[in-house]
Amino acid sequence: MLLQLDADQGVLRETTARFLDDQVPVATLRGLRDDPTGFEADYWRRGAELGWTSLLVDEALGGGRVSDAGLVDLSLIAYEFGLHAAPGPLVSTNLVAAALSAAGGRPEGVLDRLLSGEAIASWCLNEPVPHDRLDEVALEAAVDGDEVVLDGVKRPVESAGDAGFLLVTGRTGSGLTQLLVPTDTPGISIEPMHSVDLTRRFAAVTFDGVRVPSSAVLGEVGGADEQVAWQLQLAAVLTSAESVGAMQRAFDMTVEWAFERYSFGRPLASYQELKHRFADMKTWLEASHAITDAAAIAVAAEAPNGGELAGAAKVFTGEQGVELAQDCVQIHGGIGVTFEHDLHLYLRRITLNRTLYGTPAEHRQRLGAVVAQRIEAA
């Protein structure tokens, strides 16, 4: 991130960077490849103590921030997660924490457990084909007396197998309803999925006649459309910030390699063709920093164009991030496509983030709809 940080933000970012350097070096990440969770519980608790889960939560509910913009603070941590290809459900747990904060901290006790790192949570938004589009929600949330009955499938859901709670977005009539559901509720089944990322775990979650009390509803039944749109803005900013961190690390590794690797008595970096490619990558990287920074500031300030900037950041980092990472692999040559080299850790993170919370094509379509509405209104 290229933001001008104040002293407290600088300390937050530096502390997080040192912690990740110490706790999850590359050797540790490789060792977590076959771990069913993908991270250690103590690692996550200690990260929560550093503020990883509190920055989008109101101070009256136990949260805290280091500046006037908690989302900007959190984007700095997300950026470090990308730089280190760090494990842990940073985005998903913070999205649930933000939703609980907006609901006044209800249900009681859950938010405290998320803030302490004792428990993690995940947002159940996306669904399988044929309802896999960003704006499609088919899971049924039907009111039955003083209960709500859930039927449907959500996938992919990050860390669902280890989460204590799920924030479920369902459809009630023509509107959306959000509910906080403990994962041990009868009728819930969780099936692990394969992930391209070495340390991030996803699952398909099936809700088969799951009954929860009406007190599990966050906000109003059928009235969560605006809340879901806001959560998507948060998700777009945070995944973009994380991708920019991974892009930066991949680019830096490749520049270093190009100056150290010689061909015909010259460093690779001296060849004009590679200079052109580095110039392109640098342009993509700086633009990714800029649009993500702008989106974080706008969404944090609840600016009218916050949603558009968040979508634009998701589009640009999703497309140019993969392009940059693939160029880095090609410049490395044969070693770049091996598992033994570290480059693939960042390619994996960028590739996965591209698909989460809406693909570039889906966000571009949404932006196009906004432009069309403006043209019609003019």
CATH superfamily (homologous) name of the largest domain: Butyryl-CoA Dehydrogenase, subunit A, domain 3
Summarize model confidence as the mean pLDDT. 95
- Using only C-alpha atoms, the radius of gyration works out to 21 Å
Q: How large is the count of helical segments?
A: 11
| Sequence of strands across the biggest β-sheet | 1-4-5-8
| CA-CA gap between termini | 36 Å
CATH topology category name of the largest domain: Butyryl-CoA Dehydrogenase, subunit A, domain 3
For the record, the CATH architecture of the largest domain stands as Up-down Bundle
The largest pleated sheet is described as: 4 strands, mixed
SSE sequence, one letter per element: HHHHHHEEEEEEEEHEEHHHH
Class computed from helices, strands and strand pairing: alpha+beta
Keyword list:
50% helix; Butyryl-Coa Dehydrogenase, subunit A, domain 1; 10 strands; Butyryl-CoA Dehydrogenase, subunit A, domain 2; 11 helices; four-stranded antiparallel β-sheet; Butyryl-CoA Dehydrogenase, subunit A, domain 3; four-stranded mixed β-sheet; 378 residues; single chain; alpha+beta
Structure description:
The protein has helices at 7-23, 26-31, 41-49, 70-84, 90-102, 110-116, 225-260, 272-300, 306-332, 343-355, 360-377, and strands at residues 121-124, 140-144, 147-158, 165-172, 175-182, 188-193, 202-213, 217-218, 262-263, 266-267. The protein has 378 residues and is of the alpha+beta class. The chain folds into three domains: 7-119, Butyryl-Coa Dehydrogenase, subunit A, domain 1; 122-218, Butyryl-CoA Dehydrogenase, subunit A, domain 2 (Beta Barrel), CATH 2.40.110.10; 225-377, Butyryl-CoA Dehydrogenase, subunit A, domain 3, CATH 1.20.140.10. A four-stranded mixed beta sheet has the order 1-4-5-8, covered by helices on one side. It has a four-stranded antiparallel beta sheet with strand order 2-3-7-6, with no helix packed on it. Strands 9-10 form a two-stranded antiparallel sheet.
